[in-house]
UniProtKB/TrEMBL annotation, chain A:
This is Serine/threonine-protein kinase RsbT. Its EC number is 2.7.11.1. It is an enzyme of class 2 (transferase). Keywords: Kinase, Transferase. The keyword Transferase applies. The keyword Transferase applies. Residues 35-129 form the Histidine kinase/HSP90-like ATPase domain. GO terms for molecular function: protein serine/threonine kinase activity. It comes from the Bacteria. It comes from Cytobacillus purgationiresistens.
TrEMBL record, chain B:
This is RsbT antagonist protein RsbS. It holds the Pfam family STAS. Residues 1-112 form the STAS domain. Transmembrane segments: none annotated. The lineage of its organism: Bacteria, Bacillati, Bacillota, Bacilli, Bacillales. It comes from the Bacteria.
Length: 133, 118
């Protein structure tokens, strides 16, 4: 699909590649510097979660065209252990890895739309979209 | 790649010029503390003018190195945070509370001199 490009997340350097891909697509779609920073930061958080908790997975960046609106969707997919308590991971300050616990609730605030689907043992699927204003 | 740390009188100056990966950030943490130890510097300015985003990992590394420097007796001022970076940090939920900041390197050095009581 030409509207979607993906980066496999296997190590820490892939986090950098995913960010760069996202920033390039955001620039191309016409997002301003603040939204570019929001999108880049959101990708970084999601890619790092894959690396830390699932070991591997992928980040896809999709260009969205809907009802005359243009947007960018980040799709984060992994086949890791999944999340037991979705409500808990969406709380600020909750972390099992010694991090700041800002990741997922932060991504939700940075983006316009946020969807998370996860079952223990079956991986995690997160989609976060930013619309061009 | 390692981030260069410059010494100016009793201060250390760092300008982060490229996107940080995790390893570079952690290496910087160690290098800065070692340099504080080696030079007996009592002030540090970290300039982030060229940085266009900070995620929670980089924020944690920065916050930690500031605390660690404090333990060793050195004060750290962060300078040059871009508007987009300030917005995304607060939206992420990271306030970097109790961190000394200044608009640019010049004001950062002034602030450091005040803090150090000179």
């Amino acid at each position: 699909m030409e509207n979607q490009s993906c980066v496999k997340i296997l190590n820490e350097w892939d986090i950098v590649s995913a960010r760069q891909l996202g920033r390039n697509v955001a620039k191309e779609l016409g997002f301003g510097t603040v939204d570019q920073a929001r999108i880049t930061t959101a990708i970084s958080e999601l890619a790092r979660n894959i690396f830390l908790y699932a070991g591997q997975g992928q980040i896809c960046i999709e260009k969205m065209y809907k009802n005359g609106k243009v947007g960018l969707r980040i799709i984060s997919l992994d086949k890791g252990p999944g999340i037991n308590d979705l409500r808990q991971v969406m709380e600020d300050g909750y972390s099992t890895s010694g991090g700041l616990g800002a990741g997922l609730p932060g991504v939700k605030r940075l983006m316009d739309e946020f969807m998370i689907d996860s079952n223990p043992g079956d991986g995690t699927d997160i989609q976060a979209t930013k619309w061009l204003r | 790649m390692r981030i260069p740390i410059l010494k100016l009188h009793d201060c250390l100056l760092i300008s982060i010029q490229w996107e940080l990966d995790d390893q570079t950030a952690l290496q910087f943490q160690e290098d800065l503390l070692q340099k504080i130890h080696d030079t007996s510097a009592n002030g540090v300015v970290i300039d982030l003018t060229s940085i266009d985003f900070i995620d929670s990992f980089i924020a944690k590394v920065l916050g930690d190195v500031i605390e660690m420097s404090k333990l060793m007796g050195a004060k750290v001022v962060i300078t040059g945070i871009q508007p987009a970076v300030a917005i995304t940090l607060i939206e992420l939920g990271i306030g970097l509370n109790n961190v000394l900041t200044a608009l640019d390197l010049e004001k950062g050095l002034e602030k450091l001199q005040q803090e150090l009581g000179e």
